From TrEMBL:
UniProt record similarity statement: Belongs to the TonB-dependent receptor family.
Domain TonB-dependent receptor-like beta-barrel: residue ranges: 454-877
Annotated protein name in UniProt: TonB-dependent receptor
Bilayer disposition of the protein: Multi-pass membrane protein
Subcellular location, record wording: Cell outer membrane
Pfam families: CarbopepD_reg_2, Plug, TonB_dep_Rec_b-barrel
A GO cellular component annotation in the UniProt record: cell outer membrane
Keyword Transmembrane helix in record: no
Residues of the TonB-dependent receptor plug domain: 129-231
UniProt KW keywords: Cell outer membrane, Membrane, Receptor, Signal, TonB box, Transmembrane, Transmembrane beta strand, Transport
Signal peptide: 1-20
Length: 926
């Protein structure tokens, strides 16, 4: 693999080395803009070149003589110039094209911003009033990433939380856990299909539906105030000025599957849509449950498929714009994993209680539909109607072999007195529908108004989540036949939740003239949102009778068993059935002053009124006794902010900002419900007493945009969190619960660099984050420390640690090559995420840490005709393991356990391998 990476790096570097002799220089417009992509032709030799990403050009291998250069670029007048070249030498010639005033005059009628180019992304970063980073559609297309979650990890300061198949799912911005960020589509908030939380799984969204991705890290008053880390805004494809369309098709493979590890699945179409109780059956019988669809199926090859189509045009004298786009992705993912269940010994060391060999087989089917209409009533009024539907279906088999690693367990000779086998068949169907009607109105030359009416609905459906459990043992590495013996050997569970939002946004912008201020803007507005969530749950348990059934004698597959229902009425009392609401009323006032075209100040205050609560229609007796069957609370938060931008010169800015924000708990976090179907097999418990978090945020950043696509940014940030919400593992109670943990600090520095050398470029960013929180942790100790016969008691002590999910070091490095003449684009991209806390423990020094890891991806695009482009994407080339550990030393006996290290190494809790994936395809523009 090292040789492969070295070869790929050399291929990217090779085009940079050129022969001596020729013409080189910069190409700019008379307005100071670098004309990236301008076409340069030279006579009498018929040679052509294209201006590189740094605004420079070079034409090689020209003999001595005089030449005529012609430069063309849309929106600028053609330039012709004569240049002389001496023998074996280079001639420097900078070229400046005059702006074509005629074309500019025409553009005034219906001016639109080109938002999907890399140049527009860089311009937005430069002129924005707030701290933000922008990735354009051009950047996204070249990246190896298929969904928004994996795209956003390329942004400085952003890391990912991944699911068990290794795919990115949630963004962690500046070390702030996913709860501290929110997601927008075209500037409006959307609900989450997640069954417990308000944050949106970013892997739902195909990346090829985007025009740009914006990450804002400092909030202004006109933005909703519930973010500390940042805000991720997905700007979807807009209607082009002229007819255009694109077809995208590709096929790929995951190296994890095939040969000795075929892809394991089942008849996913056979899942019951609803349990008997939801159909009015109060006393279910075995015939109400079918098991024929739960027969294992094995496939040596499951293709990865990506298909996309987009068409856009303008009609009615360019007044009506239409954009239609669709995307479908099928990806086979999974992992080969080892998990350890751990305990805590009386001396504070960690015990290894169970080992699980887990194999995940997951088929993802992701679909996105996108329709946008915009109508330009005239040059002062316009309306847009946007509709989107995204759907992600994950069909997953989790096949587990669990070995009890104490008692008669002998890892050297292969003896295990107690083993178990658990196969879980689970389909998760998540979807979001959003419809947004928006209007922009210029009421006069100093007053503008805009509004948005939004309806959104998100849902999460897990139908017939089935677990099939068996027991066994092993002697001299030979496993005995599996047995069905325990109660609840088969469980079938249904979960469904939906989230419905109705919202109205209004904004008024005033631009009065004030004599002593160069440019003035006042903005006021408000928001009304009603959110309602419902959650439903059902579970049935089955056993095979009073005696153990042996595989090969009494049964061969799950359909051979006469299952007995243990709870024919289902779950009669369950707090997992609930309704909740969150109603937000917000208003703000904002000002922006540009004092002298140097110093710009933006600030104001936002008020958010929150009404949040839940109702349990089937509370347990314990919940009734504690008077927790319903809850409603209201509160008001005033969120001031102030932002300064000093324009040192036209190419550099100095920014500073402060904003206050509020983070509300997720729905299931304050509802006292249990969820025992988590990946970590710990029961999760809601906490009705968890409080909202208040954040105070400071930013300072220097920006330099020297030329072309180059940029250099360095900044620092500081965040003070009051009552941060984190999960803690309570081993005695056997569950994890969200709670508030005093105050916390988070600070760091970001560096973001893009540098091109004509066609070769380097993009790099690095973020160092340091956070600190002090919490009370328990530990075991002898009641009389010097007396080994005294009782063991639990005491507590304060422990300082980072925030959960925060990595001290995050880095991205991409080697880029863009050659329009050859129609060739290449990107070799690596991401590093440092050590961070994976799960918190209630005990001192017993937190679980995810170890730092690298991921290397490759993307190559080659234009083979003016309309056709071929591409290759390769993921996870290094195939590094994802590992979680407890920073306690293993002993001699534990060092013989599979995958554990030497005596004194940290305890390995989890190790996952996801293997490599490849995709080959084409894009056709029409």
């Amino acid at each position: 693999m090292t040789r492969t990476v070295t070869l790929l790096s050399l291929l990217l570097l090779l085009p940079f080395f050129t022969l001596a002799g020729g013409i080189k220089g910069e190409v700019n417009g008379s307005d100071g803009e670098p004309l990236i992509g301008a076409v340069i032709s030279i006579k009498p030799i018929n040679k052509m070149s294209v201006v590189g990403m740094d605004g420079t050009y070079r034409i090689n291998d020209l003999p001595e003589g005089d030449y005529t250069i012609t430069v063309k670029y849309v929106g600028y007048k053609d330039l012709t110039k004569t240049v002389s070249i001496a023998a074996n030498g280079w001639t420097a010639s900078d070229l400046i094209l005059d702006v074509d005033a005629v074309q500019l005059d025409e553009a005034v009628v219906y001016g639109t911003k080109e938002r999907k180019t890399s140049e527009s992304a860089r311009a937005t970063e430069r002129v924005s009033s707030k701290v933000m980073t922008v990735l354009s559609a051009q950047d996204i297309e070249l990246s190896p990433d298929l969904n928004v979650a994996n795209v956003v990890q390329r942004v400085a300061g952003v890391s990912l939380e991944r699911n068990n198949s290794g795919d990115g799912q949630f963004a962690i911005v500046r070390g702030m856990d996913k709860r501290y960020n929110y997601t927008l589509v075209n500037g409006v908030k959307i609900p989450s299909p997640d069954n417990k939380n308000r944050y949106v799984p970013l892997d739902l969204f195909p990346s090829d539906l985007l025009d740009r991705l914006e990450v804002t890290k400092a909030l202004t008053p006109d933005m909703e105030g519930d973010a500390v880390g940042g805000v991720i805004n997905m700007e979807m494809k807009d209607a082009p000025e002229t007819y255009s369309g694109q077809l995208n098709l590709s096929l790929g493979n995951n190296s994890l599957f095939g040969g000795g590890n075929p892809f394991m699945t089942w008849n996913t179409g056979g899942n019951l849509n609803t349990p008997p109780s939801w159909n009015g059956i109060n006393n279910a019988i075995p015939s109400d449950f079918n098991t024929n669809h739960l027969l294992n199926q094995y496939k040596n090859y499951v293709p990865n498929i990506v298909a996309g189509l987009s068409i856009g045009n303008r009609f009615m004298n360019d007044k009506l714009g239409v954009m239609l786009a669709g995307s479908y992705q099928q990806t086979a993912r999974g992992s080969e994993s080892t998990w350890y269940s751990t305990g805590l010994m009386s001396d504070g060391t960690t015990s290894l209680d169970n080992m699980e060999d887990r194999d995940y087989y997951q088929l993802q089917k992701r679909m996105g539909l996108h329709a946008k209409l915009d109508y330009r009533i005239n040059n002062k009024h316009s309306i847009q109607w946007y509709n989107a539907f995204v759907n992600l279906r994950n069909d997953q088999v989790r096949d587990v072999t669990r070995t009890r690693t104490w008692g008669s367990y002998d890892p050297i000779n292969g003896n295990a007195g107690e083993m178990s086998y658990v196969t879980r068949y689970r389909s998760t169907i998540q979807q979001i529908f959003n419809s947004t009607l928006t209007g922009q109105h210029e009421l006069n030359n100093w007053l503008k108004a805009d509004w948005s009416a939004v309806y959104s609905k998100a849902s999460n459906n897990v139908p017939d989540n089935t677990k099939f459990s068996r027991s066994g043992s092993m002697t001299n590495w030979v496993e005995e036949p599996e047995r069905i013996a325990a109660r609840s050997s088969l469980t079938r569970r249904w979960d469904y939740n939906d989230d419905e939002d109705i919202a109205l946004y209004t904004n008024f912008t005033f631009t009065p003239e004030i004599s002593f201020i160069y440019d003035t803007e006042f903005k006021v507005g408000g928001l009304v949102r009603n959110k309602n969530r419902s959650n439903d749950f059902e579970q049935y348990r089955f056993n095979a009778g009073s005696r153990a059934l042996v595989k090969g004698e009494d049964w061969n597959d799950i359909t051979d068993v006469d299952w007995i229902i243990e709870n024919p009425t289902g779950v009669n009392y369950s707090p997992n059935r609930y309704q909740s609401h969150e109603n937000i009323r917000a208003a703000y006032g904002q000002f922006k002053f540009d004092f002298n075209q140097k110093l710009e100040m933006t600030g104001g205050v936002r008020m958010e009124h929150t009404d949040i609560g839940y109702y349990l229609p089937q509370p347990t007796n314990e919940i009734i006794d504690n008077d927790l069957q319903e809850m409603s609370q209201t509160y008001v938060d005033f969120l001031p902010s102030i932002h300064f931008k000093y324009k040192i010169n036209p190419k550099s800015n100095l920014r500073s900002s402060y904003f206050k924000s509020v983070i509300r708990p997720g729905f299931a976090e304050f509802v006292p419900i249990e969820n025992g179907d988590t990946e970590d097999d710990w029961t999760e418990m809601g906490n009705p007493f968890v409080e909202r978090t208040i954040g105070h945020n400071l930013d300072l950043r220097y920006e330099l945009f020297p030329s072309g696509m180059d940029k250099f940014m360095i900044g620092g940030f500081y965040k003070k969190l009051i009552n941060p919400i984190e999960y803690s593992l309570n081993r005695q109670a056997g569950y994890i619960m969200p709670d508030n943990y005093g105050d916390a600090e988070n600070m760091g520095i970001e560096i973001d660099i893009v540098k091109y050398f004509n066609k070769f470029g380097i993009s790099a960013n690095y973020t160092y984050t340091h956070s600190k929180i002090v919490t009370e942790k328990a530990f075991y100790e002898r009641e009389i420390p010097d007396d080994d016969t005294s009782d063991i008691v639990i005491r507590s002590a304060l422990e300082e640690r980072p925030l959960q999910g925060q990595a001290a070091h995050i880095a991205n490095l991409s080697l880029l090559y863009k050659n329009p003449e050859l129609g060739l684009d290449m990107q070799l991209a690596t991401v590093y995420t440092g050590d961070r806390i994976h799960s918190l423990s209630a005990f001192y020094g017993n937190d679980m840490w995810q170890k730092g890891f690298f991921q290397l991806d490759l993307s190559i695009e080659k234009r083979v005709s003016p309309k056709t482009l071929l591409y290759l994407k390769a993921y996870n080339l290094l195939d590094n393991a994802y590992e979680v550990e407890i920073r306690q030393p293993i002993n001699e006996a534990q060092s013989h356990f599979p995958h554990q290290g030497e005596v004194g190494d940290n305890v390995l809790v989890r190790q996952d391998f996801y293997r490599r994936q490849f995709l080959v395809g084409l894009k056709y523009n029409f």
